[in-house]
Design brief:
By secondary structure, this protein is an alpha/beta fold. Among the domains are: 90-120, no CATH class; 220-376, Rossmann fold; 405-468, no CATH class; 504-688, no CATH class. It has helices spanning 3-13, 35-45, 88-103, 117-124, 126-141, 144-147, 164-189, 219-231, 250-259, 277-287, 306-319, 338-346, 389-394, 410-416, 419-426, 434-445, 456-468, 500-543, 555-560, 577-580, 588-600, 645-654, 658-668, 670-688, and strands spanning 50-51, 57-59, 234-240, 264-270, 293-295, 326-332, 364-367, 372-376, 583-584, 616-619, 634-637. It has a 6-stranded mixed beta sheet, sandwiched between helices. The protein has a 3-stranded antiparallel beta sheet with strand order 9-10-11, with no helix packed on it. Strands 1-2 form a two-stranded antiparallel sheet. Strand 7 and strand 8 form a beta hairpin. It is found in: Nucleus, Nucleolus. InterPro entries: G_CP_dom, GNL2_CP_dom, GTP-bd, GTP-bd_ortho_bundle_sf, NOG2_N_dom, P-loop_NTPase, TRAFAC_YlqF/YawG_RiboMat. GTPase that associates with pre-60S ribosomal subunits in the nucleolus and is required for their nuclear export and maturation.
Length: 689
């Protein structure tokens, strides 16, 4: 390396090469401040405008200048073409398709912002829009002061018709519009009847009624309702299955359809256990045409429809997957079971419930799962000009103890309930009107006042409470479908939600059990006769004193041969049941448990392998007339050991459990069958010993 290259390398290393700006310093940099410190200090000076001696801005601060730099728009043809265009034919077809989808309650519109919903809705209300526009223009162009009064400038009345025929046609249109308003009023009030008769015989709104009938209509309750609706994504309208139309609030449905169409509304028919299956299924079928409808029975331990409701709420949650959570509000009339449904879904008591209206005072927010929350709401009573005090009382809106003269509502109650239901409920007959019915029931229940007069008020309140709480059976029949005569749903004659195939299987299983019992009875009689013959041979040999006192081993008992339907009343009065009966099992609790086990295992799949084998204790302490070894103890034998070998083989062939047979013989034939078992069992035990 030469001397020149070494010198060049040294100059580059010392920064003395380049464009000659290597030794340039930043302004303000000196021995005390380096370049970094100077930049930091200059940062505090920025953001302020520089002014001259006169105070005028010489240099504007950052983002303070009003001078706009020159800009250019990208030269593209898209700025001069249409963006979102639809033809009238396409819009009409889309509107018709949208109407068909909107009528289906099981179709959900998720993203309405991407659709021209304003064009679709404006197409329906064109006439109303024109009328509103004309009315607005008339008010603006012709104020009231210029038409009426001393400063009126109008010379003649402006009519929209030119002759009498046009006036008659306009009058007919106005009448049709009036009928439509009456029909809408009838639907919103929940009343029934023809639209022509509504409003003619109704009582005026200024009629003096008791203040108790205004319950559920206060401003506080309506504020709670609208808070629940505003906070909910899904609204559950709880209806009473006995009267769905009476507990339905159409004004809320109209509000949701017009003001909040993005919220989902579903119906839940609660208390479906109080109505026949066909009626509940008919109401579900009828209401499902408008909104999704579910049948429900609110109970923490034994509910119905819980899984279907939770699955439906999960579907709504999956539809709104973009949201972190959804809220479900429960609305409806008083005492329809809104709080009970929440307790049923959570399997515990989280909301206060009571069989009286108005128990829930304020709304309550409850967490069902991670993404679903429930909101409880007080019961609401929409104001209506067609609802009478009788309708409100029988609908369960008011508390019975606060109603004056409750006996006046008993006759309308009797008109809604069938007479034989009242007779079976209260075990009364021979009454023709409500007064006689109250007097008979008061004397039977001991509700008497001074002088032996019946307490009609107290008995009437008791009947009204029974009517509301489901003790008295009643319901509103469901509307019939097209082509249906009896108003019943095919395949729904059993319990609600039960499949017809399952009922057929149970019926066939019952027939098999009946035939098996008949065959078993025949073999049992043959075995008893054989045992009786052997017993008579033993008595001839001098051992008859051992079984003295067993009525079932006598000739009279063998000649009777009672069937499975026999009862203890058919026995002779001279015999004592305590002398002839051996306690199999030892207590009534064991029999109850055995009955429950039989009910659970009833069906074609029931066999001896499914039912648990229980050992039965044969108590021999009550046996008289026999010096038994070890009296006072209990011998534990297997149920099959209590029967003859032939009977055991028959049980194995027909798949009928011995414990089932014993329990049925105990329940159905009572003591006579057991007395025959007593003699036969004791004979077997005696022969073994």
């Amino acid at each position: 390396m030469g001397t020149g290259k070494k010198e060049a390398t040294r100059r580059e290393r010392q920064g003395k090469t380049g464009d000659g700006l290597g030794n340039v310093r930043v302004k303000g940099e000196n021995f005390y401040r380096d370049a970094k410190k100077v930049k930091h200090l200059n940062m505090y000076k920025e953001g302020k405008a520089q002014r001259n001696a006169e105070g005028k801005i010489v240099k504007a601060a950052s983002f303070q200048s009003r001078d706009i730099p020159n800009a250019r728009i990208e030269p593209n043809r898209k700025w001069f073409t249409n963006t979102r265009v639809v033809s009238q034919d396409t819009l009409k077809a889309f509107r018709e398709a949208m109407d068909e989808k909107a009528k289906d309650p099981y179709q959900v519109l998720l993203k309405s912002n991407k659709l021209p919903m304003s064009l679709i809705r404006d197409g329906k209300d064109t006439t109303n829009g024109i009328k509103q526009h004309k009315a607005k223009m008339t008010v603006e162009t012709s104020p009231f002061a210029e038409v009426f009064g001393p400063k009126a400038q109008r010379k003649r009345v402006k009519l929209s018709v030119s002759n009498l025929d046009d006036l008659a046609g306009d009058t007919e249109k106005s009448m049709d519009t009036y009928q439509e308003r009456l029909e809408q009023q009838r639907l919103l009030s929940g009343a029934s009847g023809d639209a022509e008769n509504v409003g003619l015989d109704d009582k005026p709104l200024t009629m003096a009624i008791e203040p108790v009938f205004d319950k559920g209509q206060s401003k506080r309750i309506w504020n709670e309702l609208y808070k629940v609706i505003d906070s909910s994504d899904v609204v559950i309208h709880v209806l009473d299955a006995r009267d769905p139309v009476g507990t339905r609030c159409r004004s809320i449905e109209k509000y949701l359809k017009e003001e909040a169409p993005h919220k989902h509304l579903i119906f839940v028919l609660n208390k479906c256990d109080l109505v026949p299956t066909s009626v509940a299924a008919g109401w579900v079928r009828s209401l499902s045409k408008e909104y999704p409808t579910l049948a429900f029975h609110a109970s923490i331990t034994n509910s119905f429809g819980k899984g279907s409701l939770i699955q439906l709420l999960r579907q709504f949650s999956s539809l709104h997957s973009d949201r972190k959570q959804i809220s479900v509000g429960l609305i409806g009339g008083p005492n329809t079971g809104k709080s009970s449904i929440i307790n049923t879904l959570l399997k515990k008591k989280v909301c206060t419930v009571a069989p009286i209206p108005g128990e829930t005072k304020v709304w309550q927010y409850v967490s069902l799962m991670k993404r679903i929350y429930l909101i409880d709401c007080p019961g609401i009573v929409p104001p209506s000009s067609t609802d009478s005090p009788t309708d409100l009382v029988l609908r369960g809106v008011v508390r019975v103890e606060k109603v004056e003269h409750p006996e006046q509502y008993i006759q309308p109650l009797l008109n809604r309930v069938k007479q034989h239901h009242m007779e079976k409920t209260y075990e009364l007959k021979g009454w023709t009107n409500s007064t006689e019915f109250l007097e008979l029931l008061a004397r039977k229940a001991g509700r008497l006042l001074r002088g032996g007069e019946p307490d009609l008020d107290g008995v009437a309140k008791m009947i009204l409470n029974d009517f509301m709480r489901g003790k008295i059976p009643w319901f509103t029949p469901a509307p019939k479908a097209e082509g249906e005569t009896e108003g019943k749903v095919a395949g729904r004659e059993g319990r609600l939600g039960e499949m017809p195939r399952k009922r057929k299987q149970e019926d066939s299983a019952e027939d098999e059990d009946a035939s098996a019992e008949a065959q078993l009875q025949q073999e049992l009689d043959a075995a008893l006769e054989k045992a009786g013959e052997q017993g008579s041979d033993d008595s001839d040999s001098g051992s008859g004193s051992e079984f003295e006192g067993f009525g079932s081993d006598t000739e009279d008992a063998r000649s009777r041969k009672p069937s499975f339907g026999a009862t203890a009343d058919e026995e002779s009065e001279g015999e004592s049941a305590s002398d002839d009966v051996i306690s199999v099992g030892g207590s009534e609790e064991d029999e109850a448990e055995e009955e429950e086990e039989v009910e659970e295992e009833k069906g074609p799949c029931a066999n001896s392998q499914k039912v648990k084998r229980r050992e039965k204790a044969v108590d021999l302490t009550n046996v008289k007339g026999h010096d038994w070894p070890g009296v006072g103890q209990s011998l534990y034998l297997h149920p099959r050991e209590l029967l003859a070998p032939g009977l055991s083989r028959h049980l194995n062939d027909t798949h009928v459990n011995a414990s089932t047979y014993l329990s049925r013989s105990t329940m159905q034939s009572s003591f006579p069958i057991l007395s025959r078992f007593t003699g036969f069992i004791c004979f077997l035990l005696g022969s073994v010993s």
